[in-house]
Amino acid sequence: EADIYQTPRYLVIGTGKKITLECSQTMGHDKMYWYQQDPGMELHLIHYSYGVNSTEKGDLSSESTVSRIRTEHFPLTLESARPSHTSQYLCASRPTSGSFNGELFFGEGSRLTVL
Amino acid sequence: AQKVTQAQTEISVVEKEDVTLDCVYETRDTTYYLFWYKQPPSGELVFLIRRNSFDEQNEISGRYSWNFQKSTSSFNFTITASQVVDSAVYFCALSEAWRDDKIIFGKGTRLHILP
Asked: Which residues, listed in sequence order, are joined to residue B66 by a DSSP beta bridge?
């Protein structure tokens, strides 16, 4: 069982509000990721981090921002939520193990609805 | 560029039937890793298998089996004697060795096992 946690699981919020989705992992993984999953199921990488103080944008442009001040914590923030931000957000982490790619461990996701 | 194609958007089979989920990938790298993940209704993606590009041996785990063929760039997943609990969305994914910071997912196949 993966030790990666996301809060809140569900959030309904009005347009213009600032929101932060929390993601924490207790596995000591350096690499962390945020994926956005649209209703059609497709997963889009929006942010990732190699470790503390490292953040990179993913393949899908996103108005959200992330920070990585501590290894275990990788929050995602939307300064002003809009209906187009309505989606499922999945956080994941993976170990850094030499040259071999470890699998991703996923949280249960945060389903955001912006009215 | 790397790409993963899951041509089957949705499949329905009757319980106890065998079902194969197709996955075709594209990569320019000679060293890469392939994955399958399961996403049950709860939302969390669960890792099923990782295969590296040097290992073309097929793998069997209980009712699950995977057929990796580099000649056709395919990594297909078969469930034998399907059960209702197998109902989920299944994702195939690819990670290139030189870009081990990213895993690219296919669009997923939604599998319905009918009782």
From this structure: B59, B77
Quick check: B44 and A92 CB within 8 A?
Answer: no
Q: Evaluate if residue A60 carries a pLDDT over 50.
A: yes
**Per-residue pLDDT, A53:** 95
Question: B98 touching A, CB under 8 A?
Answer: no
Beta-bridged to residue A48, according to DSSP, are A33, A56
For residues B92 and B12, what is the distance between their CA atoms, to the nearest angstrom? 18
Question: What is d(CA B58, CA B75) in angstroms, rounded to the nearest whole number?
Answer: 10
What residue of A is the nearest CA neighbor of B107?
A42
Q: Chain A contact for B6, CB < 8 A?
A: no
* Contact assessment for residue B7 and residue B108, using Cβ atoms and an 8 Å cutoff: no
Mean pLDDT over A44-55 rounds to 93
Residues A58-86 as b or e (16 or more Cβ within 10 Å = b): beeebebebebeebbebbbebeebeeebb
User: For an interface test with A, which of B6, B92, B100 has the most A Cβ atoms less than 10 Å from its Cβ?
Assistant: B100
